Request: fold
Amino acid sequence: MDRRRKVVMGLSGGMDSSTMLAYLLNMGYEVYCLNFTYGSKHNKYEIKSAELIADHYKVPYRLIDLTAAFEGFKSNLLLSGGEIPEGHYTDETMSKTVVPGRNTIFASIMMGYAESVDAGKIALGVHQGDHAIYPDCRQDYVKALDTLVYLASDRKVEVIAPFLDTDKIGICRVGLDLNVPYELTRTCYKDQEKSCGVCGSCRERLEAFEENNIDDPIPYENQEQGFQTLEGVNTALAILKDKITSETNVERILKYSEDIKKLEKQKLKLLDDEKTQFKSSSTDYDNFNSNRLNQEKIKLENELVKKTNQLDTCRKAKNRELLKVEINKIKTKLLEVEKIIEKRRNM
Ligand SMILES: [Zn+2]
Reply:
């Protein structure tokens, strides 16, 4: 086959790369897929999706482990990093999910592989929605990378990025037209089996399906529960209120106001939870008899162990803060009880 019809691409198992694979095959390309694992929170879930997609399209697929190379890199997307922010994908907070140098590292491996399988192109699945936050997804980056790859491969390999000027909504439309099995794909950034529905990545995906008037075929964890942080609720509310003012379609307006109502309710619930968690219960231990004091001591010690264990596994920053407050309160109470026990012993 003509090497200009052979292309190497990164298949992560997400919507963009899965759609690009379908798009390139539809254009008559012979496609070679590489997937990179680099210690991200969602790698282990994405890999399953990537394998299923590669199977579905019967294309060659290789998984390349770069975990060691990314050790020490700073990003909330990595297992070693902090929380994945909830909210909109263009929010400043999403910049915490940038992995420094990622696309350049991947691209250089794809280039080397392309030369090895005699492919004349490497394809990047970057799109317009990534431009705001990710520097290695922008037009000038792709242009410069193309020059670099072309020269580095002695003019044998070039870079294509078919979705560079398309947004997620457009990509979704292309994929729906090409019957991409979106039920097999994975988009969520969080370290959990079921997609969260509230991280920037999930929000962008859900919006893309909504704009195409199609239900996203994958299940979401928070579809009923809603956002679990006030920041998430507030961002979603701001976006919806913004949308509703410019929307002319009556059905959409009704749907948006329904969603706003749900979010307002969730916001109240979250505010309420916060209040209850902070409410201090003052107990007059002085009036306890020795037996009850000892029982109280054991109760508080058990509670302390339980909360400390919860803190160890809790991943939400807000909940972690609340747990820390609770732990401090228990410690204070425990000290108080121990002091009284000690005092009585010396009486
Ligand atoms: Zn998510």
In short: Strands lie at 6-10, 30-37, 61-65, 121-123, 158-160. The chain has three domains: 3-222, 226-278, 280-345. The longest strand covers residues 30-37.
